[in-house]
């Protein structure tokens, strides 16, 4: 082995030449990769995230076919319901290149109490209540306020119509909400054609179903979706903190009509989280024309003189039941349950 001692200058020159070689090689590789990518991936196309697991997701193309995709490194995390631009690889998998702007998001607090998006581009929050368990108007109002705070239009679904008799007080309740401007859609999973109105009302929309336990959300969803679609949704995910099971929100298409549903246990619990006082005020849609017209700017609509909300209630423009719900929700905010 010949040992040649290089002068400092020689060594410097060799290093420089080598560095340039490395640089050229890197550049060539990048170009190769780009060419490879151009060749390997098809053209950009639109799609929708129908399930996601960290940086991997299922994307449904405009042809309705689902592809396992990964996310380009520089993109933020996506959520179910996101509309994306993606490209298909020769093996049927794909890469998501960009996210289209979201027109709505559903958020839930994470373990640390920070709000996190769980689903995007939802058109309707379907608040399910039922003939039994007997619905409490306060709870319906609570869901309505939470829905209004998202900017996503709520609708009410009165389920178990097969148990409803003609004189039932629920007719009055339904008409109260219709008068406020909310659609109230009757449904029954126990009656032929009992879901027709619901299917029609949800055409061309992506919805979520929320509502208290026992109102029949699972039964409705089972009846609306094609048989094979329910056994999915759970996936074990490795994270640095260890292995745990997460349940992702999933988008399903109805077997009839053109409606779709995004569902997960977390989404079903929507509406029970924290709201601030201003969201509560604004969540009572019939209060809106009066807000800002009270004598005191920080009026809380209790006993204050010159309160526009109280005056409207005295004049019959705001129902006493709704004012009562408002007070109860505000009270809960200030004295949260233990
Ligand atoms: N009579 C009648 N019963 C129904 C109807 N839909 C659901 N049920 C019954 O109501 C009960 C509750 O239904 P689920 O679908 O489990 O209700 P859920 O809202 O999913 O309840 P959680 O899973 O606790 O959130 C079950 O015993 C159903 O069989 C209906 O349209 N009519
Ligand atoms: Zn007031």
Automatic annotation (TrEMBL):
<dbReference type="GO" id="GO:0003924">
    <property type="term" value="F:GTPase activity"/>
</dbReference>
<feature type="binding site">
    <location>
        <position position="294"/>
    </location>
    <ligand>
        <name>Zn(2+)</name>
    </ligand>
</feature>
<feature type="binding site">
    <location>
        <begin position="211"/>
        <end position="219"/>
    </location>
    <ligand>
        <name>GTP</name>
    </ligand>
</feature>
<feature type="binding site">
    <location>
        <begin position="159"/>
        <end position="162"/>
    </location>
    <ligand>
        <name>GTP</name>
    </ligand>
</feature>
<dbReference type="InterPro" id="IPR030378">
    <property type="entry name" value="G_CP_dom"/>
</dbReference>
<feature type="binding site">
    <location>
        <position position="307"/>
    </location>
    <ligand>
        <name>Zn(2+)</name>
    </ligand>
</feature>
<dbReference type="GO" id="GO:0005737">
    <property type="term" value="C:cytoplasm"/>
</dbReference>
<dbReference type="InterPro" id="IPR004881">
    <property type="entry name" value="Ribosome_biogen_GTPase_RsgA"/>
</dbReference>
<feature type="binding site">
    <location>
        <position position="299"/>
    </location>
    <ligand>
        <name>Zn(2+)</name>
    </ligand>
</feature>
<dbReference type="GO" id="GO:0005525">
    <property type="term" value="F:GTP binding"/>
</dbReference>
<comment type="similarity">
    <text>Belongs to the TRAFAC class YlqF/YawG GTPase family. RsgA subfamily.</text>
</comment>
<feature type="compositionally biased region" description="Basic and acidic residues">
    <location>
        <begin position="17"/>
        <end position="37"/>
    </location>
</feature>
<comment type="function">
    <text>One of several proteins that assist in the late maturation steps of the functional core of the 30S ribosomal subunit. Helps release RbfA from mature subunits. May play a role in the assembly of ribosomal proteins into the subunit. Circularly permuted GTPase that catalyzes slow GTP hydrolysis, GTPase activity is stimulated by the 30S ribosomal subunit.</text>
</comment>
<dbReference type="InterPro" id="IPR010914">
    <property type="entry name" value="RsgA_GTPase_dom"/>
</dbReference>
<keyword id="KW-0862">Zinc</keyword>
<protein>
    <recommendedName>
        <fullName>Small ribosomal subunit biogenesis GTPase RsgA</fullName>
        <ecNumber>3.6.1.-</ecNumber>
    </recommendedName>
</protein>
<keyword id="KW-0699">rRNA-binding</keyword>
<keyword id="KW-0547">Nucleotide-binding</keyword>
<keyword id="KW-0479">Metal-binding</keyword>
<dbReference type="GO" id="GO:0019843">
    <property type="term" value="F:rRNA binding"/>
</dbReference>
<feature type="binding site">
    <location>
        <position position="301"/>
    </location>
    <ligand>
        <name>Zn(2+)</name>
    </ligand>
</feature>
<keyword id="KW-0694">RNA-binding</keyword>
<keyword id="KW-0378">Hydrolase</keyword>
<dbReference type="InterPro" id="IPR012340">
    <property type="entry name" value="NA-bd_OB-fold"/>
</dbReference>
<keyword id="KW-0342">GTP-binding</keyword>
<dbReference type="GO" id="GO:0042274">
    <property type="term" value="P:ribosomal small subunit biogenesis"/>
</dbReference>
<comment type="subunit">
    <text>Monomer. Associates with 30S ribosomal subunit, binds 16S rRNA.</text>
</comment>
<dbReference type="InterPro" id="IPR027417">
    <property type="entry name" value="P-loop_NTPase"/>
</dbReference>
<dbReference type="Pfam" id="PF03193">
    <property type="entry name" value="RsgA_GTPase"/>
</dbReference>
<dbReference type="GO" id="GO:0046872">
    <property type="term" value="F:metal ion binding"/>
</dbReference>
<keyword id="KW-0690">Ribosome biogenesis</keyword>
<feature type="region of interest" description="Disordered">
    <location>
        <begin position="17"/>
        <end position="41"/>
    </location>
</feature>
<keyword id="KW-0963">Cytoplasm</keyword>
């Amino acid at each position: 082995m010949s040992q040649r001692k290089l002068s400092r200058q020689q060594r410097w020159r060799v290093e420089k030449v080598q560095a340039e070689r490395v640089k050229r090689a890197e550049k060539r590789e990048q170009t190769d990769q780009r060419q490879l990518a151009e060749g390997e991936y098809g053209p950009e196309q639109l799609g929708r995230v129908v399930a996601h697991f960290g940086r991997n997701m299922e994307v449904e193309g405009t042809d309705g076919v689902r592809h396992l995709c990964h996310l380009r490194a520089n993109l933020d995390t996506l959520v179910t319901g996101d509309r994306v631009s993606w490209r298909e690889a020769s093996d049927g998998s794909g890469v998501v290149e960009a996210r289209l702007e979201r027109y709505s998001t559903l958020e839930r607090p994470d373990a640390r109490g920070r709000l996190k998006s769980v689903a995007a581009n939802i058109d309707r929050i379907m608040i399910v209540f039922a003939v039994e368990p007997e619905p409490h108007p306060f709870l319906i109002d609570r869901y309505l306020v939470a829905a209004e705070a998202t900017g996503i239009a709520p609708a009410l679904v009165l389920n178990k119509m097969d148990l409803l008799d003609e004189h039932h007080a629920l007719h009055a309740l339904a008409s109260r909400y219709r008068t406020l401007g909310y659609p109230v859609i009757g449904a029954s999973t126990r009656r032929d054609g009992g879901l027709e109105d619901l299917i029609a009302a949800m055409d061309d929309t992506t919805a979520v179903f929320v509502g208290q336990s026992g109102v029949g959300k699972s039964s409705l969803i089972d009846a609306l979706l094609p048989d094979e679609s329910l056994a999915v949704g759970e996936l074990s995910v490795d994270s640095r903190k260890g292995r745990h099971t997460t349940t992702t929100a999933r988008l399903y298409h109805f077997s009839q009509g053109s409606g779709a549903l995004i569902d997960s246990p977390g989404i079903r619990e929507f509406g029970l989280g924290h709201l601030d006082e201003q969201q509560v005020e604004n969540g009572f849609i019939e209060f809106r024309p009066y807000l800002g017209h009270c004598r005191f700017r920080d009026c809380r609509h209790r006993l204050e003189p010159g309160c526009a909300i109280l005056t409207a209630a005295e004049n019959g423009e705001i129902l006493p039941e709704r004012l009562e719900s408002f007070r109860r929700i505000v009270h809960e905010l200030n004295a949260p349950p233990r």
